[in-house]
Design brief:
There is one protein chain. The protein has 30 helices and no strands. Helix content is about 75%, strand content about 0%. Helix 19 packs across helix 23. It is mainly alpha-helical. It is globular and about 80 Å long.
């Protein structure tokens, strides 16, 4: 059975390596290998303190383990290439199925990359002694087994919890906290610099070894000093933890296959539209407010925005930096808008009601805008005023008076416009399993929204920055009102003009969702995985080879890292604040090489853009040739010994 499941997964991956999925897999693999190489470099580098390589590798393993445990919360449910529900009707006991799916879990990019990273334990064990290197080899594989099984168990447990609001809150706290911590890592820079020069503090080094991720370091050190009992206890400990995780995952798998609950809670009494008289916009507002309180996904998004804003702005207080405290509300407003830009995609095919009702499109758009404002604007104001009063940061009042109305109004306009211009189809709410991890976030849309929402506050920001403070509030209020009205009007016109097309997109997406309680046609599943419209038809590359399309996506996605993040941004900082230290590559080399490195990064980014356009041209040529070949084949006469089959073959 294991061999069959592995071949099934390989077949699904082979057929689904198209478009954005292929680009994500290739980009993720490259990034993972870079991080794995960085972990090995920590073991190879000549550090000034003895024992520091062991501490650093243990800390790096802790980060890898955290990524395995909580990465699915951030990126959407983990590896679900083969879903257990697809095999529910087969006479396979759940524990045997769990063992088969465990073997399948090691087929993919992430386990290979993690195995490469964990080989840093062997590298760091070589200077300790030959015995330490020998014991490190089985520990590497046992550690990989542990993190994969622990990831499966934690993901399954969170999936069960996230069918209720408490689970949605827990997932929001985990994902928002981790993301905010990654964005405020510079707070730990002084501590990291001290640790790299003077070594880890004793208590921190001890905690690194107490965690399961650091047990490999314990085994290496124990083997180096001849403590074979402790060295043997580490592999045994990994084996015990793996068995426990396996048993827990099997139990949760049985529950998953035998229970199915809907997302959110059922409505009680009259609906919001019935309670709010007057129809039109007010009815839509009532519906959206009720949906926000019942739908676990929208509730999770709001809690995530709140947790991220609090963590991002309060963590700098650890280094006595209260400058971000007044902007908790601003951060909440930006993220609340960024993750609310898929309103129609989340609703699914229910949009048919709006499409078929004359004049309903404009009322629907305005109602969604007003409901979003009612949900977020009061929170933004409270989170802006109260922290500013408590922290005494009175200098921030002009900034808040300008930025808050601009961001709130601009966000209300951008969310509806992006919702109709770039919807991400999802399963209809009444067909969802209730597990939020199965409905991954579209990070491309989130990044786009972060940029657009921040751009709406540009006029207000520039007014306060270069003009009189009192003018910022007026500019922010005017731009917020104008953007909310104009962008909403544009979204309504687009929805009226393309409503049927939007409905067709939603229906095409939901029709590809397999019935989890019935028989599964695997040929249909593997064929449909690559059928998502990612705009390839507009680019003219829909019939190009998967490798060529993946090259186009990779070039245009990766190019912005060297061009913007490592090129133009450090160049701007170098020009405006040449003495400021930062994490940019150009600032980590000797000063004489700052500008050359910036130039190399900019050229690299431009080179990737040029390569992307070159690959785009080749992909269009392949697509045109494939179209011509297919047309020629269709027009060719059919030669067969059975003339009666000609019509059937043409059909």
């Amino acid at each position: 059975m294991v061999g069959i499941l592995i071949r099934m997964k390989l077949a699904v991956l082979r057929h689904s390596m198209t478009g954005q999925r292929a680009a994500d897999m290739i980009g993720g693999g490259v990034l993972g290998l870079v991080l794995a190489g960085g972990t090995i470099w920590l073991a190879l580098h000549d550090w000034p303190v003895d024992g520091l390589p062991l501490d650093l590798v243990g800390a790096a393993f802790a980060i890898w383990t955290i990524g395995w445990l909580f990465g699915p919360v951030l990126f959407g449910g983990g590896d679900e290439t083969l879903r257990p529900e697809h095999l529910a009707l087969l006479p396979i006991p759940p524990r045997r199925l769990a063992f088969g799916l465990l073997a399948v879990a090691f087929v993919g990019v992430a386990p290979v990359v993690s195995l490469v990273a964990f080989t840093a334990l062997i590298v760091v064990a070589l200077p300790v002694g030959g015995a330490a290197a020998v014991i490190a080899v089985p520990v590497v594989f046992l550690q990989l087994l542990f993190v994969v099984l622990a990831s499966r168990f934690v993901t399954a447990a969170l999936s069960t919890l996230m069918r209720a609001k408490i689970g949605a809150v827990l997932a929001a706290v985990i994902s928002g906290g981790i993301l905010a911590l990654t964005h405020t890592g510079w707070v730990l820079k002084p501590t990291i610099q001290y640790a790299l020069t003077a070594g880890f503090p004793d208590n921190l080094a001890a905690w690194v070894r107490r965690l399961p991720s650091g047990w490999g370091i314990v085994a290496v050190e124990a083997a180096g000093r001849g403590d074979w009992l402790l060295a043997a206890a580490v592999p045994a400990g990994f084996a015990v933890l793996s068995v426990l995780a396996m048993l827990g995952w099997s139990a949760l798998l049985v529950r998953r296959l035998s229970h199915r609950s809907a997302s959110g809670r059922p409505a009680r009494g009259r609906t919001a539209a019935q309670k709010i008289r007057g129809g039109g916009v007010r009815a839509v507002v009532g519906r959206e407010l009720r949906t926000a309180s019942r739908d676990l996904m929208r509730f999770h998004y709001l809690v995530f925005s709140l947790v991220y804003a609090l963590a991002f702005c309060l963590l700098p207080l650890l280094v006595d930096l209260p400058i971000f405290v007044p902007f908790i509300g601003v951060a909440f407003g930006i993220w609340a808008a960024a993750i609310s830009a898929n309103l129609y995609g989340e609703d699914g095919t229910v949009i048919w009601q709006t499409v078929l009702t004359p004049g309903a499109a404009r009322k629907d758009v305005r109602g969604r805008q007003l409901a979003w404002l009612l949900l977020t604007a009061p929170v933004v104001v409270v989170l802006s005023v109260v922290p500013t009063l408590l922290s005494g940061q009175t200098w921030a009042w002009p900034w808040l008076a300008a930025l808050v109305p601009a961001l709130v109004g601009g966000g209300a306009g951008v969310i509806v416009l992006i919702s109709v211009l770039r919807p991400v189809p999802m399963t209809d709410p009444h067909k969802r399993s209730g597990n939020l991890l199965e409905n991954g976030t579209d990070f491309t849309q989130v990044l786009l929204m972060l940029v657009l929402v921040a751009a709406t506050a540009a006029p207000a920001y520039l007014t306060v920055r270069y003009g009189p403070d009192w003018a910022g509030a007026g500019v922010g209020l005017v731009t917020g009102i104008l953007l909310a009205w104009l962008l909403g009007d544009l979204a309504a016109k687009h929805l009226e003009a393309t409503g049927p097309d939007l409905l067709a997109t939603m229906r095409a997406s939901t029709s590809r969702t397999s019935n989890l309680t019935g028989d599964v046609d695997w040929d249909q599943i593997t064929a449909s995985l690559g059928g998502v419209d990612l705009g390839e038809s507009r680019l003219g590359i829909e019939k190009a080879s998967p490798a060529r399309r993946a090259a186009v996506y990779v070039c245009f996605i990766v190019c912005w890292i060297p061009l913007i993040a490592q090129g133009l941004v450090p160049a701007f900082l170098k020009y405006t604040d040449p003495d400021r230290d930062s994490w940019f590559v150009a600032r980590l080399v000797p000063e004489a090489l700052h500008w050359p490195v910036v130039g190399v990064m900019v050229l690299l980014g431009l080179g990737l853009i040029a390569a992307g356009f070159h690959q785009l041209r080749l992909a269009r040529r392949e697509s045109r040739q494939a179209t011509v070949d297919r047309a020629g084949l269709a027009a060719a006469p059919v030669v067969t010994r059975h003339p009666e089959k000609v019509d059937e073959l043409h059909h």
